[in-house]
Amino acid sequence: MKKIILTGLTAAILLSCSSQKTDTATTAVATEINDWQQEAQAFLEEYSDTYQKLYTASAEAEWASNIRIVDGDSTNAVATRKANEAFAAFTGSTENIKQARQLLEQKEQLTNLQVLQLEEVLYVAANNPQTVPEVVKARIKAETEQTEKLYGFDYKLNGTPVTTNDIDQILRTEKNVQKRLAAWEASKEVGKGLREGILNLRDLRNQTVQSLGYDDYFTYQASDYGLTREEMMDLMQQLNQELLPLYRELHTYARYELAKQYGVKEVPDMLPAHWLPNRWGQDWSAMVEVKGLDLDAALKPKGDKWLVEQAERFYTSLGFPELPASFYEKSSLYPLPPDAGYKKNNHASAWHMDLDKDVRSLMSVEPNADWYETTHHELGHIYYYMTYTNPDVPVLLRGGANRAYHEAMGSLMGLAAMQKPFLTELQLVDAGASTDEIQTLLKEALSYVVFIPFASGVMSEWEHDFYAKDLPADQLNKRWWELARKYQGMVPPTERGEAFTDATTKTHINDDAAQYYDYALSYIILFQLHDHIAKNVLKQDPHATNYYGSQEVGEFLRSIMYPGASADWRQMLKDKTGEELSARAMVAYFQPLMDYLKEQNKGRKATI
Ligand code: X8Z
Ligand code: ZN
Fold first, then answer.
1. Fewer Cβ close by (within 10 Å): the C or N end of the chain?
2. What DSSP element (H or E) covers 440?
3. Model-level pTM greater than 0.85?
4. Which atom of ligand 1 is nearest to the CA of 349?
5. pLDDT value at residue 23
6. Domain total in the chain
7. Which stretches does DSSP call E strand in 184-340?
8. Whose CA is nearest to atom 1 of ligand 1?
9. Which residues neighbour 337 within 8 Å (Cβ) at sequence distance 6 or greater?
10. What is the 353 CA–ligand 2 centroid distance (Å)?
11. How many CA atoms lie within 13 A of 311 on its CB side?
């Protein structure tokens, strides 16, 4: 009989074994199965225990490094390096790799859950192999240094210190092109100092994963989806193609409208980057103001705290629990006062500190529409963490069905939280106000559709070329702007030589490398989920939903979140929406906009 000590996890295994034993002909096999399963279980439990402890220590150190960056003080950096080295030494140890491989040779004898966990052990090991300990150590050091340089950077506009929030606000609202140019250029200065670090990191990231048989770091990251690098790039091309007709209309529209706005007579073929209301041209929604739906104005008097609490209320209205008190005590949610004397990571993130109950978010929330969307996005991660932290999901599988699902959940709620019936219920818009539906859809397209060529084209192809195609060190900026022209139809305001490294101004290039297609895929998935929820759960028009208070919607989302990475992501999509991964829902959502844009663009020249 079994010697395994019962936990929630092993109870499931016991159950599957006991049903086998009722089959009289399989006694011998059943014993053998039990032995392998027992051995795998013993290994996994011991491994997971240490893994969780070291993961927590690493997360704590990283957290401290990201919320408190003190110029000239290396205390946090040193502690982070140590914690990450300890995590790497364990997860990449030759002994653990050997055991996981041996057990996987008996794959047929193991439970599905065990196989998935052992594969995860090898996946994590490949990023930290102790066959090349010096490379792993050097990479950890280089990563910590790159993060400090990126987030410790002093942004200055006309000699005055500014935050990235300040720059973003100028790019969203300023009508004077010279002032826009100054803000845009100020936002790119940080890249100069990141060039050497990213080149070093490329080699170190590639070398680490190559030692366990991956071609390069991009291939390694794509393998998390069960895709080769070529398959991932093909998928990105396909998404770009599917959305190109709409993007082309948006591009034409934006060129003519912005030229008018800035008083430029000759409409440029390519959009100057500093004309667009976002540092990277990845979101143009601030271009359009929908009358009666001015969210920036409605949110300002509410204050920053309200935004976070409102996002929480949205989730609890669907039946999710309240956030633990520790979330509010330990998170870092708002901008630092200007005289703090230190800096923090200025990009939003969500953290599962101990793979258990300690969940936190790092943001710099200000009461505006962008942060309103982002609070919903980050809480999507948090509620995903909380939901798959359950007895049926072992520590090693506490992740999304894939990384894109993790990004999709909160973005879905962000989309839902912007729709008029919902905003009306919150009294953020006047119930009586008539709003223009096409303008609303245009604003949404300028966010969601415009994002696709940036994410699946520029970001993914640049990182692909950088990691897998040995992009020459003297062509980093050249390639970046070639891709921006090709996919976004966007050009820099002035010639950007190789002294700049504009790609590295995007935080993910530095600290979330070779994974940006996650976001492109997350948008595709979110429209599939939204389409299903609107039509089949709420029976509402996808353009005008109100998820608020719907227990069914909550149950639907929870059922996706609950199994974490123990679910097969393709099967999940099929089961939940009846569809394979496809841009169909996204294209259909924006279809009504096509006619309007074609009409607006009549007589205008399309250039992409
Ligand atoms: O980086 C993020 C999240 C991280 S949790 C805030 N996003 C991408 C970006 O800002 O570039 C969300 C959508 C795109
Ligand atoms: Zn995210």
1. N
2. helix 437-452
3. yes
4. 5
5. 39
6. 2
7. 271-272
8. 348
9. none
10. 15
11. 31
